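WARN no homologs supplied; continuing
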Amino acid sequence: MKKFEGRVIANGELTGEAIVSRQGVNTLATFQKSALKNAKKVISSDQNNPDLYKKCLTGKILCLPKTIGSTTGGLVIQTICSMGINPSAMLFSESIDSLAASGIILARNWENSPIIAIDNLGEKFLKYVQTGDKIEIKNDGTVIVTKANE
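OK structure emitted
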């Protein structure tokens, strides 16, 4: 078990399962297909991200360095949150970008989405956490990672 401290973008307390991307997440490529199909859950459609491709992201704690891609990124995040098919949290090792931040903030304020976002967790966080690990998030930006085999 390891503890990491980050900056709170959208607070909340949550315990859940990690899904990890070692590379930047293209929000349009990852989420758009599920949103357009009015799907009941997000299955990543980004063929260029082997960490996430064809995996369910709904209700998971998405651990990533940053988001990348189209300027529609914030809108895509807000849309999946309005549909209730979003990851329950997004944990960034780097500083959150303005598009992801805007999508998360709009989703929380306009859609009453409980999505949580913490950034600046550091490179060590992203090296340590693995898909399937248990993550506990605290209101103050503390993130506790328990390995799946512990």
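The radius of gyration is 14 Å.
OK
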